Amino acid sequence: MSEQQGVLFQNKERKMTVKEIFFKYFSYFSFFILSVIICLGAAVLYVRYKVPVYTASAQMFVKNDERRGGSVRGSGSNDLIDAAMGGSRVNLDNEIELIKAKNIITRAVVQGGLNMRYFNKGKIRTSELYASLPFKCTLVSKKDSSSGFLLTLSNLTDAGADLNIGKEVSNSGKRKIEWGIPFYCNDAYVILNKNQGVAFNNETPYQIRWEPAANTASEIAGSLGVAPLSQRTTIIVLSLRGSSPERCAEILNNIIQAYKTVNLEEKNRIAGNTIQFIDQRLAIVTQELGGVETNLKEFKTANKFISATNQLQQFMEDYSATDKTILDLEIRKQVIGSIEDFINNPANADRIIPSNLGVDDGTLTALIVKYNELILRKERETPMQAPSSLVIADINNQLGETRTAIRNGVSLIRRRLQDELNNFKTRSSRFQSELIEMPAREKVLKEISRQQSIKEGLYLYLMQKREETAITSSSTISNYEQIDKAVFSYAPIEPDARRIKLFALVLGVLLPFGIIYLKDIMNDKVITRDDITKKTDTPVVGEIGHSKDMQTLVVAHKSRSIISEQFRIIRTNLQFLLGNNKTLLITSSVSGEGKSFVSLNLAAVMAISGKRVALLEFDLRKPRIINQIGVERKNKGISNYLAGQAVDINDLYYTLDDYPSLHIYGCGPIPPNPAELMLGSYMRPFFDALYANYDIIIIDSAPVGLVSDSFTLHDYAQATIYVVRQRYTLKKQLEFVDEIYRTQKLRNLGLVINDVMVGDRYGYYGFGNGYGYGGYSYGNYFDDLESKPWWQRFKWRKNKN
């Protein structure tokens, strides 16, 4: 292929414009309208027959009991007994979870009888009834409380009604019941009482459903909403969704009442437990307090304790007095010792004994006075008496006796003083020991006194708390208060007709988009031009549009039809492929892609131009061309010639009246060995004869994706057309085409796109404008449409598609 040819046949990738994308989806306008109608219709039916959902709400105030430290549950109380018995501050998170507890809801259900429900059974929708019921059902007893029952009533009268157990109303299971008469069903005794003043509606049957309270509580819990009103308040907002607004409001009121009742019961139980605990502790504390007081009494008695301070002061005074007495005795002892030393000293025999030493003994003092008077008398008489005088001798005798008496008296007094001194020293030692032991005894006394104070304080505290608890339990008020009765609105929150219809409208528009887009991404066949350009660089020779005509030969001499013009474009473009060569091979990937159709019409358009054309039906395995032109097949054909049978080549072709220069060589009998025949020795003479008689030779070969016949014919063909059919050829088969193109297994390969549906829906806008093959292109052949109004262009595209 020349460089000019390579440039001419270069594929150029083209992206769809916004306008093309818009018209692609706009071509499905009827699909969009149908989708919107269906979605809106479904939305209207849903709104019409959906059981409406209502909502009710109530507010509950959680009080902060400062005396008890808050509500019953939690933590944070400053009082020991309150903290031990469960006192707390308000914790809204805990309160919210406790309100939603199943036991609270179950209690509310039981108290309000909310597990007995009434319905009006319509043909499509079943509505719940709550107010203005024509009758009331009362459960007398039930053996198995874990299972419920369903009753259906019909034909209500003033006397009774027809009863069916279950949903269905049937004559076989129907029985008559009377108002106020108990009857047995599903292990339960039930009474139905007629409500006076409420009329019956026998157009639709009534249903009565009873469920265990736990099941009803679980159903309510799934629709119950509990949240704080704000962060700065202790108000909790309860909301409930259901099919009956009155029932929802009643449920909320019962839940709050049940929660208040549980709170009161819990407070009373706590008060009772508190009083019991205090009584037990009082008995123990009273016994302990008596023991402590007994110990204190015994300790004081044993230690002669009146007051630690007074006793210590007395001990100090006695100790000081004892020490003073000891000091006086020591002084007196020394004075007596001095007198004794004075008397016993011979040098002091004639000297006066001092009498002012503070001797307090009268006898000794009298003896000293007598002794001193004798000394003075002797001193007066000595000068007047002779040494041997009787007076002096008598005085000396008296002095000796008195000295002896003084000596004996001093000795006696000294011993007496020593005894007293020893006694007082012993007493002083005892005082010292008692003073040393005084802190220890004071410590023991303080410990006993401390125990006494603790027991007395604990006793008084318990007595006070007992009185407070008794007073509180007699006038208990719940920590919770319902601000107002539950309120509800008769306007349902579901279904929201406006929102649902808007959603249906959006869905009706988006659903076709999704389906179309999903169809595009799930499609594995060639649809758009990009599907070809992304898979292969093989040049495109031309395109053949989709035709509703059942005829195979669509090219006529003076025809100006679209397909005829397309084959003329291909004829012009083949000049670049064939050049001065004659033989053109036409193949495809699989059967059904229009290979024979393209071969026949291409041969016809060549013949119209005045060329002598030979069309060879070389698909020896499944020939179709002769059958398509509507002539009777001969007994001889190409297979006979290649098999070496004695046949004249001029006897093998067929002619058409409108195409005298076109000779169609039929296959003949289908051979058992077509591949061997093509490799035989008669192939070359056969083609040499054709080269000599024809300007163009077109070979309709077998699909190259199934058998190797086309590769066998490679040596006899100078150019190859590979037929790709829109919406039929697989995209992955184009990879095989690209491999053939790159490896040149087939010479001068070009593509023909067959059965093309162009326009918005398929996103296929042709290769004519982008490839410069000359002649008309499928894109600009209809350029005059752009000058027409948009509705005419749309009508043309719609009819074309």
TrEMBL record:
GO MF terms, alphabetically ordered: ATP binding; protein tyrosine kinase activity
Transmembrane parts of this sequence: 21-47
Keyword hit for ATP-binding: yes
Keywords recorded for this protein, A-Z: ATP-binding, Membrane, Nucleotide-binding, Transmembrane, Transmembrane helix
Source organism superkingdom: Bacteria
Span of domain CobQ/CobB/MinD/ParA nucleotide binding: 585-757
InterPro entries to which the protein is assigned, alphabetical: Bact_polysacc_biosynth/exp, CobQ/CobB/MinD/ParA_Nub-bd_dom, P-loop_NTPase, Wzc-like_C
Protein name, entry field: Capsular exopolysaccharide family
Natural source organism: Sediminibacterium ginsengisoli
